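Q: Convert this sequence to structure tokens.
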Amino acid sequence: MVERASQGRESQGGTRRTRARGRESRRRIVEAAAAVAGERGYEGTSIARVSEVSGLPASSIYWHFADKDALLAAVVEESVELWLGQVTRGEGEALAQRVTELCLGVARTFTESPDFLRLVLMLALERRPVEPVAREIYLRLRGEAIERIAAELQQVRPALSPADAMLVATYALAGGDGIFLASLTGNADVAALFRLHASAIVHLVEQAESGVSGGRSGGGSPSRGGGREG
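A:
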């Protein structure tokens, strides 16, 4: 009986070690896939290249993932929560403070998730007859990020209409995309660009609010404000 108990403990220990190795190999595969896809895009990513970068055989990759599409979908899913948390994390009661925090969150993703950002921008731009699952996941969660940013803006400026909040939030995230692309050149002053971007967002919110208080039907739109009278 003592011998059987000892064998049972050894078996459990072996199972735990196997699971730990499985988790570690999966992590290495996902990180390698993110690096490869961030450099080469969806079409340029291959299981062979991921195998080379990860140092694991293709059979290990196929053990965890059915195909390249499933692998890149996992890359997006496992990276997007960090990204969402950063780009939608705002603090402070004042509009300028909240917007600055949101912009700083976007800036942090440049250093913490550069491979992921390159991958999802490529996925957003690439179009093909059958869309990759990874692209569908990213576009859906990007929409969620815009909704969260809009909610952050309305929390500090309740008079801002839902439509204007969504419009400004869409602009805010798109501006972050542009700054990321500029940062890839290596000579852009990212901090200065984000300060300018934050000022523009605050201005658009205030412009939209002035349109609402001015009594325009349907709420004020940032895109319509500022027009000079003839």
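Confidence is low (pLDDT under 50) at residues 212-220, 224-230.
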